[in-house]
Amino acid sequence: MLIRSARLPVLPSARGTLAWLLQLGYTTARLFAQNGLQNHAAATAFYFLLSATPLLLLLSYGMQLLGRIAENSVPATILMAALYDQLRFDSLTAYGFIPRQTQLAAGGVGLLTLVLSSRGLVNAVQGAFRIVFPDQGKRNLVVSWVLPLVILPVMFLLMGLAALAQVTLSFLAQNDFIGTGNAQVLQGLNTLFGFALLWALVFAAYWRLPRRHPPARVAAAFALAATLSLALLFSLFGAFFKLENYHSLYGALGGVVFVLIGGYFAFLLLYLWAQALFAYGKADITALEKLFLGGSGTGASRLESYVFGDTGRLLEKYGQTHPPGHVLIAEGDDSRIAYFLHAGRAVVYKDTDTGRRRLGELNEGQLFGEMAYLLNENRTASVIADSDITVLALPPQIMEELMQHSAPLSRRIIGTLCQRLERMNLANAD
């Protein structure tokens, strides 16, 4: 007679979503602190400062060329006035960001410094991503050397074009050259373009920098969250942190301190969301590890026990219910699914020359069926439900990630496997 089984009823989605968000946030914060990404953010901000300084030198040199052109061109005069007004060149020069006189040679040196410092900045970002997304693979040597030399100048060029369009439109609107309504529409479109450009850069980093690329859809969602956070950071930074305050407090170094602090918080957010992207792919693995180890032996804190104490989300995703007599595992079968007995009781049997022999009993909290996955062999025994049971069915890829993720769990699985092999050898000897 066929004994039917059923999946668990679906829990309210709001509860499962809340549990997932809580576990994702906890895992992200723990890994972020464990990987020391604050230090990586500080190092990246330093390289960003090295890249920004020659960029300002080149910008100053460009303004000098524009000034020469403006002597005989009305549009160039309007553009130059807009840049001076909107970018506050007088303030930047007064605070020491830009030298008062920049010669052609300085422009060449600035370009060379920008290219070289861009390599340090991109390498710092890649180093942080290797910590966030651990992988033993090596990158192509040519790509690893060429990419840093071109990506930052291109990025600054695109961002500079967006900023140039923004300040020009603001100047034209203020002086009623194109009409206030048209200017506001164009400014809004230009702002969206700048936001989309920043999102595209973050998305490219989140999607392509990890050696094992996450799904594009997931990377795009986390890149959007990071971009929104960066936009909010820039708004708050502009409202509460003033360059004048740093200049009065630190003197000539005030501008340097201002840029370092801003860059530090920006890269802190960039790495925080990157760590959340990694934790997103490990949320189930971490929760399953805590469930299998049961808190004991893992040094679980009260907060950790609270965060991972609700198993409803895992039961909703992996849970199955079976009645008494259901054959969960049949001896000789080639399936590789492992099971965790969440509730109920099951019995292990093995076929012998004298008939079916009972090897033992499985109780709540035990992981079983992993031998076929580990040894890549057919099932060596049968498991039959002795009562109504609730199990978590885990496919081979989940077991593979669990073994790689958790050394304590791997040791426990190997120890249990050795005990079962010993019992089976004794049974065969009898």
Give the C-alpha Rg. 30 Å
Helicity range: 55-70%
Structural class, from secondary structure content? alpha+beta
- Count the E strands: 9
Strand order of the largest sheet: 1-2-9-4-7
N to C succession of SSEs: EHHHHHHHHHHHHEEEEEEHEEHH
| Overall geometric form | elongated
Mean pLDDT: 77
Provide the low-confidence segments as ranges.
1-12, 102-107
Oligomer: single chain
Strand content bin: 5-15%
Number of domains: 2
Cα separation of the termini:
32 Å
Q: Biggest sheet, in brief?
A: 5 strands, antiparallel
Note the total helix count: 15
In short:
The chain has 430 residues and is an alpha+beta fold. It has helices spanning 13-34, 37-70, 74-86, 89-94, 104-132, 141-174, 180-208, 216-240, 243-250, 254-293, 302-307, 312-318, 370-375, 396-405, 407-429, and strands at 6-7, 319-322, 327-329, 338-343, 346-352, 355-362, 367-368, 382-385, 389-394. It has 2 domains: 17-284, no CATH class; 323-429, Jelly Rolls.
Kindly list the characteristics that best describe this protein.
single chain, 430 residues, alpha+beta, Jelly Rolls, 2 domains, five-stranded antiparallel β-sheet, four-stranded antiparallel β-sheet, 15 helices, 9 strands, 68% helix, disordered N terminus
